[in-house]
Amino acid sequence: MLVNGIWQEKWQPVQAQDEQGRFIRQTSTFRHWITPDGASGPTGRGGFKAEAGRYHLYVAYICPWASRTLMARRLKGLEAMIGVTVVNPRLTDQGWQFGGFPGADEDPLHDSRYLHELYTRADPQVSGRATVPVLWDKQTGAIVNNESADILRMLNSAFSHLVDQGPNLYPEALAAEIESLNRDIYTDLNNGVYQAGFASSQPAYEEAYGKIFTRLDALEARLGDGRPYLFGDVLTETDIRLFVTLVRFDAAYHGLFKCNRNTLNAMPALHAYLHRILALDGISETVDLDHIKAGYYSIKALNPSGIVPVGPRH
Ligand SMILES: N[C@@H](CCC(=O)N[C@@H](CS)C(=O)NCC(=O)O)C(=O)O
């Protein structure tokens, strides 16, 4: 991680913990918003007007948070508006690296070697983790935002006057229900799997494991009434937020993170839901199982041998 703009060599991919051994997720540093006219959004400062070709997304296919933004970019038809660069799935002691793995890109904008160089380019005094996703502004050389929940929401609406495509991922009429289910899915699943995987005590692990499978059982029942998506016929941002965890479940969380009561194959409604979303136009291209497995299984603290399991293949 970075402290006052200096990369810390003793960086460990295991994140902060509380006194009971529970994993604690760090907060994001850059919180500006792209808006149709450049006015400021709910957080951060203004000056980031929606314009074709001005912004660039840095992502990792391994990363569920980054994948949210890739999915939104695809669903909203923004590929021609916003470029994408995919980092190497294996975290190094310098954090995310460009190139050096099939499907990983070099940095097309600054020829950086590591992602943290973008953070210090944007703010020479920055402190914090150099995480993906990063939404970069080519015009001012700034990081607009590195919080996937914000990016997902701004991609839904900021460019609609330029490209009118895809579902409204955040319909006003569902806002309260979306916020509430987002919270449950984040706590129990998106972050819950990391809490299971990075727990450093038996009770912390079991607490996370319990939350994960209670939530999966509830979602299996919810989808069991035949609805295609969580809120019925329309796909929302909540579906994206659930999908990114489900699509990694059997390949990474079941084995490496010990979320192993069952695989998702054993939950028919969730399994069908996962494949329904995967079959949407362009979505399978936002998922790369080789990156996902290589990335998660390169976490030395959890898998010292670095051996990557052969299965599952899809
Ligand atoms: N709050 C961030 C979290 C992003 C995040 O944790 N990304 C991970 C990859 S899955 C990362 O870049 N980790 C590197 C690090 O923590 O140094 C978001 O949702 O955008």
UniProtKB/TrEMBL annotation:
Q: Where is this site: Lowers pKa of active site Cys?
A: Y253, Y296
Entry-linked Pfam families: GST_C_2, GST_N_2
- What region holds the GST C-terminal domain? 168-296
Origin species: Billgrantia gudaonensis
Active site: residue positions? C63 (nucleophile), Y194 (proton donor/acceptor)
InterPro entries, per the entry? Glutathione-S-Trfase_C-like, Glutathione-S-Trfase_C_sf, Glutathione_S-Trfase, Glutathione_S-Trfase_N, GST_Omega-like_C, GST_Omega/GSH, Thioredoxin-like_sf
The reply to whether Transferase figures as a keyword in the UniProt entry is yes
Q: Name one GO molecular function term.
A: glutathione transferase activity
**The entry's keywords:** Transferase
According to UniProt, the name of this protein is: Putative glutathione S-transferase
Question: Which residue windows are coiled coil?
Answer: none
Summarize where glutathione binds, as residue positions. Answer: W96, R129, A130, T131, V132, E147, S148
One GO cellular component assignment for this chain's record is: cytoplasm
